[in-house]
Amino acid sequence: MTLHHLILIFHLIAATIWVGGHLLLSICYLPEALKKKDPQIILHFERKFEKLGMSSLFVLICSGIWMAYDFGVSYQTWFSFSGGFEKVISIKLLLLFLTFIFALCAQLYFIPKLNPNNIKNMAFVIISVTTIGVAMLVLGSTLRYGGI
Ligand code: HEM
After folding, report:
1. Ligand 1 in contact with 89 (CB < 6 A)?
2. pLDDT at 140
3. 107 CB less than 6 Å from ligand 1?
4. Could you read off the pLDDT of 95-125 as tens digits, one per residue?
5. pLDDT of 43
6. How far does residue 139's CA lie from ligand 1's centre (Å)?
7. Residue 79 region, left (φ>0) first, then alpha (ψ -120 to 50), else beta?
8. Which keywords label this protein (predicted)?
9. What burial class does residue 136 get, using C-beta atoms within 10 Å of its C-beta: 0-12 exposed, 13-18 middle, 19+ buried?
């Protein structure tokens, strides 16, 4: 097993946690919270998932950037959208940035003000972050075929 392969395994485990956790929240807990108008269901999940979720995102970023460098995609070529590989890495970085913006809005604005009447705003954030996560996963799966 090469070092790249080992790092890819960490990347995949972290992706499983990040995407799996958000799918669970979107498919199981969010509909229940909307139905019962109970924000505590979301807050309880967020509290339990926060540390694991954030650590897995950290692992995704470190391992992803390491593998990108291993493929010769260094920061000088980011966002030049030159080759298929480079395009995927750049889109992944843009989506990562979007995830940070959603996370920041959620922590500073939506979560502190969450109440039974505005769960729909939080639902928008949750569905967006989940969709972005799935998109990152799909984009990642194209890299073994040379990107898009
Ligand atoms: C939510 C965040 C992310 C998810 C869910 C995710 C998911 C994935 C998945 C499922 C693969 C497929 C591996 C395979 O086909 O075997 C992959 C590959 C890859 N990802 Fe990510 N990824 C994320 C973030 C990142 C970031 C931030 C970067 C770097 C900027 C990155 C760089 C890569 C690279 C270079 C590969 C190719 C590895 C290889 O085939 O050897 N990923 N990712």
Report:
1. yes
2. 97
3. no
4. 999 999 999 999 999 999 999 999 999 999 9
5. 96
6. 7
7. left
8. Membrane, Transmembrane, Transmembrane helix
9. buried
Q: Residue 137: CB within 6 Å of ligand 1? A: yes
Q: Are 87 and 147 in contact (CB under 8 A)?
A: yes
Note the pLDDT tens digit of each residue in 24-77. Answer: 999 999 999 999 999 999 999 999 999 999 999 999 999 999 999 999 999 999
Q: Is 19 in the pocket of ligand 1 (CB under 6 A)?
A: yes
Task: Quote the pLDDT of residue 92.
Answer: 97
- Contacts by residues 120-125 (CB-CB < 8 Å, ≥ 24 positions apart): 120/34, 122/39, 122/42, 123/30, 123/34
